[in-house]
Automatic annotation (TrEMBL):
MF term (GO), any: acetyl-CoA carboxylase activity
Gene Ontology biological-process entries: fatty acid biosynthetic process; malonyl-CoA biosynthetic process
Main location: cytoplasm
HAMAP family (alphabetical): AcetylCoA_CT_beta
Compartmental location: Cytoplasm
The species this protein was found in: marine sediment metagenome
Name of the protein in its database record: CoA carboxyltransferase N-terminal domain-containing protein
């Protein structure tokens, strides 16, 4: 028997649970090591560089709403493969896989809840469900939520995280852009407040419709907000975009959004705007003309909300 053909004794190595999983992860932004518990305690924000990781629908709900105050609505509306669409696999199979992964029936959860004891209508897009894409059910649920807010005279909050319109539904998906925009026109006509919160990423048909129609548009830091992504734009125009051209900071500088708010401050800021406009409803439609919105944003940006409401 040759030297290298001999059977070799197996070396037994004792391992522990600590060895196989230490709980440490590398931040994808600053590349520093952070413990999973530390990340969780900091609302999924890196404590070193403040990079905002994505939140699930449940995490976002718990962040913004008072404990046990949320009641989901329109849960009976579920997606269908109306077009019998097939790409590399059937759309019906993609839906089932997305439902299993996200534990939600669709890419949005809508309902009513309380934010600092104030009743609100709220919708939260789920990026884990087919990249938060907007199909016919997403558009229908948003429209029904808007109509409910109009009926009950509630402030409306929609938290976006999306890759855009869902290609598997073709025109049925694209028409939701006009549908949600028309519903928001009715909301504005009733002088009700709509706060749009943009998270990373918010792109495509969602950006081009309801996400950009808020009375106040708030974004999380360094969120990608665009219609087409940077790679598509660069390939189309054959030139490089400026650094950070589609990040929330760039959009704030160029007047596309109103405010950038860290996740830890988000509930407080939204509560401030709701308190102000509930006491001054006419300022929702007239705020920009009177310059009050600019003043309000400055107050919110300098953390002087409590003084402003006195």
């Amino acid at each position: 028997m040759g030297l290298f053909s001999r059977s070799k004794p197996k070396i037994k190595v004792e391992t522990t649970k600590k060895d196989s999983y230490s709980g440490w992860i590398k931040c994808s932004n600053c590349l520093d090591m952070i413990h999973a518990n530390e990340l969780k305690d900091n609302l999924n924000c890196c404590p070193k560089c403040e990079y905002h990781y994505r939140l699930s629908v449940a995490q976002r709900r718990d962040l913004l709403l008072d404990e046990n105050s949320f009641t989901p609505m329109y849960t009976d509306i579920k997606p269908k493969d109306t077009l019998k669409f097939v790409d590399t696999q059937k759309y019906s199979k993609r839906l089932k896989a997305a439902q299993d992964k996200s534990k939600n029936d669709e890419a949005i959860v809508v309902g009513i809840g309380k934010l600092n004891n104030k009743q609100v209508a709220i919708g939260i897009l789920d990026f884990n469900f087919m990249a938060g894409s907007m199909g016919s059910v997403v558009g229908e649920k948003i429209t029904l939520l808007i109509e409910y807010a109009i009926e009950k005279k509630l402030p409306l909050i929609i938290v976006s995280a999306s890759g855009g319109a869902r290609m598997q539904e073709s025109i049925l998906s694209l028409m939701q852009m006009a549908k949600t925009a028309a519903a928001l026109t009715r909301l504005h006509a009733e002088n009700l407040l709509y706060l749009s919160v943009l998270t990373n990423p918010t792109t495509g048909g969602v950006t081009a419709s309801f996400a950009s129609l808020g009375d106040i548009i708030i974004a999380e830091p360094k969120a990608l907000i665009a219609f087409a992504g940077p790679r598509v734009v660069e390939q189309t125009i054959n030139q490089k975009l400026p650094p950070g051209a589609q990040k929330s900071e760039f959009l704030l500088e160029n007047g596309m959004i109103d405010l950038i708010v860290k996740r830890t401050e988000l509930k407080k800021k939204i509560s401030f705007f709701i308190d102000f406009f509930m006491n001054n409803p006419k300022d929702i439609s007239n705020g920009k003309q009177k310059g009050k919105l600019k003043q309000l944003l400055k107050i919110a940006d300098t953390n002087k909300e409590d003084k402003a409401l006195k």
